[in-house]
Amino acid sequence: MSSPAIATPFPIPSASAGGVCALVGAPNVGKSVVFHRLTGTYVTVSNYPGTTVEIARAALRFDPATTLLDTPGVLAFPSRSDDERAAMRALLHERPAVLIQVADAKHLRRSLAITLTLAEAGLPLVLALNMSDEAAARGVRLDLPRLGEALGVDVIATVATSGQGIGHLAGAMAAARRPRVRVAYPAAVEAAIEAASEVVAAHVARPPLAARGLSILFLARDPEVEAWLAARHPAVANELRAVRAAAEVGGERLAGIIARTRAEAAGRLAGQVESVTASPPRSRGAAVGRLALHRVWGLPILLAVLYVTYLVVGAFGAGTLVDLTEDRLFGALVNPAVTAFVEAHAPWRWLADLVVGPYGLWTMGMTYAVALILPIVTTFFLVFGVLEDSGYFARLSVLANRGCAAMGLNGRAVLPMVLGLGCVTMATLTTRILSTPRERLIATFLMALAIPCSAQLGVVLGMLAAQGFGWTLAWVAVLCLVLVAAGALAARLIPGRRIPLVTELPPLRWPVAGNVAKKTAGRLVWYLREVIPLFLVGTFVMWLMDRIGVLPWIIERGEPLVSGWLGLPKEAAAAFVMGFLRRDFGATGLFALGAALSPAQALVGMVTITLFVPCIASVLMIAKEQGARATALIVATIVPLAMLVGGLVRLVLSALGLWS
Amino acid sequence: MKRALDAVPPGETVVLERVDDTLAAEFREQLAAYGFVPGRLLHVLAQRPMTVVVCDHVELALEGVVARALEVRGPGAGDN
Q: Which site from A124, A176, A331, A587 is most exposed, i.e. has the minimal number of CB atoms within 10 Å?
C-alpha cells in the first residue's frame, strides 16, 4: 500500500497555533514508533508493557506549530495504573485538539473498547490500526470503510515500522472529526449519566472533554477526573458523587457496568467488521514463548539467560571494560592530569581538596560514576534491552511470581529487582511500573536492603570466590533468606492488599538491534543526566562530613559494634561508612583487609556490607520517589537490621565451629 | 458443566460465564478491559506455573486466585 510522503506542511485546523495533539492507545501497539514517524524524535520503545512512563512531546513534521504528545500505554479508562493516570492527566490538562488512537489491528475488539471511551470524550479522533501487515499475515480482514462509518471517524491502516500509511494518517489528522458512535448503557446508568452531564454542562465552562465523557469517567471513579473536578469545581464534584451514590445503592458499582457494557459493544462492533479468512499461522515466537514457561524447559532456559548475563555484565563489563576505564584511562591518565591542573590553579587548598581530594568531586564522584559504573550499566542495559525487546521479561515475571508473592509483591516486581542488580538508583525509578504505592514501597525497601548493585556484586563475588565456592553460596543463601523474610514482614506491616498478577505474554521475537540500541542509549542519557548529579551531591556531602570531623567520629563510634558484635577488625568500620558513598568501596574496604580476615569474617563482613544502606545516590533517589519520611524509615530499619543479621551470621558460624 | 478456569485442562476452549465477586471490583473492571466478559471464548494453553489463556487473540497469564474466580463452561451456540 503506497502512502503520500509527508513533504508539504499542512496545519491541523482544529489545533490553533501552539496547540496539541495526543497519541493514545494500549501498551505495545507501536505508539512510540508512530510518534517517531510523525515527529522525527525517538522515545524508548520496548516489548515489555509499561515502560513508557513519562509523556514525550515534539513538534509535528508536517505542522511544526502543533505539538504531538506520546502518552503512556492505556489498557482502559477509568485510569488505574500510573501510566493510565498520566495519560488521563494529559487529556485533562493539555486539552489536545485531536486524539490519534494507535491500535493493534490484530486485536480489534480490545482496541475498540478504548475507541468507544475516547469517542465519549467528544474530541476529534483518528483511529490508526497499526501492525496491519501482521494482521493480514494472520488472515485477519478488516472492513475499514464500514468501521469508519460506524465510528464516524477516519480509520487508517498503518505499518509504523516501515512508514506505511503514515502519510494518510497525517492527512486524516488534518481533517479529524468528532466521533458519532455512542454506547447505550442500561437505563439506570443512562439516567445517572444524563443527570451528571446536565450538572457538568451547566456549571463547568469549557470542559477539556465533552460533558457526557467527563460524567461517565467521574461516575466510573476515574481518580484523575475526580481530582480535576474537585480542585476546580468542588460543588459539581459533590453533586456528581451524590448522583453516583444514588445510582449504586444496593447494586453493582457503575464502573463495573460501564466496563462490561463497553466491552460488549466493542465485541459486537468488531464482529461486524472483522473476519478471519485463514487459520492463523503457528507463531514460532509463541511456541518458543511457551517453552520459556515449560515445567521442564523453563528453568534451564532461565539459567542459560542468567549465565549469558553474567558473562556479558560480570566478566566483560565489570572485568574487561572497568579495567580499561578505571585503571588505564582514569587511574593512569585522566586523574593525574586533572589533579595536577587543579592543584596548580585552585586559589584555595579546600577547593583543590573538594575537587581532587580523597572525597573529590572528580577523583571520587565522577571517577566512580563514569569510570566504574558507566561501563557496567552500559553492558547491563544492553542485556536488559535484549531481554525486554525479545519479550522474555514477561515470562520472567510469571516464573518469579511465586517468589515475589512470598514478599508481598507480584511477578511484575522482578523488573526493578533485576535492574537493581545493575544500579539500585535507576531501579528505584522503575518501581513506578508497579501498580500500587504499597508495592512500590516494598520493592524499594527490599532493593535498598538486599539487592547488591553491579559494582558491589563484582567486589563481593571476587572476595568470597577467593575463600571458596561454599562461602559464596552461603552469602547468596543469607541474602535470599533476608529478602524473603523482610519482604514477608513488610507485606504484613504495610497496609494494603497484594495485587495478583495478570500479564500479557507477547510472542517471543528476535530483538531488533535498532530498538535495543535506542533503549540502551535512552537509559544511558537518563543515567548521565539524572544519576551522575546525585553521585556528585553525595560526594560533596561526604567531603563536608569529613571536613567537619563527622566521618572520623562515626567511624570511631562504630568500632565497638564492628569489632564486638560483628567480630571484625576495627579498621572495617571505615569500610561501612565508605559503603554509604560508594557501595563497591564498602566491599573494597573489606577486600583491602585481605589476609587480616578469615573466610568466616569475610562472609560476615560481606553480608553486612551488602545489607547496609545503599549508596547515597540511591538514598537521594528513594527520597525523591518515596518522600523524606519513608526514606528515613527505610534507612533507620536497614542499618540496625544489617548489623543484626551480620552478628547473627557470626553466632551461627561460631555455633557450627566455623568461626576463627 | 460449570467449573473454575484453573480446573480446565490445557488445550480446551471454554466460555466465560461469570467473574466471581471474591475479586475486588477494580480488579474485575481491569479484567473486563482485558476482554474477560461473559460469553467470551477462552483457550487454555497451560496451568503451570500460572494459568495461561488466549483471550481476544492475546496470550495472558493469570495468577491462581484470579483463574479460580473465573467461572467457565464448555462452548455452545452463540458464543464468541
A: A331
Closest CA to A120 of A183, A192, A69: A183
Measure the CA–CA gap between A215 and B59, rounded to whole angstroms. Answer: 33
Per the structure, the count of domains in chain B is 1
State whether A497 and B24 contact (CB < 8 Å).
yes
The closest of A130, A172, A132, A156 to A34, measured between CA atoms, is A130
Does residue B79 belong to any structural domain of this protein? no
pLDDT at A221: 95
Q: Based on C-alpha coordinates, what's the Rg of chain A?
A: 28
For residue A313, the surrounding DSSP H or E stretch is none
- B37 to chain A: closest CA residue: A260
- Domain of residue B10 covers 3-73
Residue whose entry in the numeric block shows the C-alpha cell 526514606: A631
pTM reported for the whole predicted model: 0.80
Number of helices (H) and strands (E), helices first, in chain B? 2, 6
Cβ of A502 within 8 Å of Cβ of B52? The answer is no
Do residue A501 and residue B56 have CB atoms under 8 angstroms apart? no
- pLDDT value of position A91: 94
A-B C-beta contacts closer than 8 Å: 107
Give me the interface pTM, i.e. the ipTM: 0.93
CATH 3.40.640.10 fits A1-194+248-281, yes or no: no
- Taking an 8 Å cut-off on Cβ atoms, the answer to whether B60 and A113 are in contact is no
pLDDT along chain A (660 residues), means of 10: 42 62 91 89 48 71 89 90 88 94 93 96 96 88 95 96 92 93 95 97 95 97 96 96 93 90 93 79 70 83 84 80 90 95 94 92 87 84 86 89 90 86 81 86 94 81 78 91 94 90 86 82 80 81 85 81 88 76 69 76 90 84 91 94 95 90
The residue of chain A with its CA nearest to that of B23 is: A500
A499 reaches B (C-beta below 8 A): yes
CATH number of the domain enclosing B49? 2.30.30.90
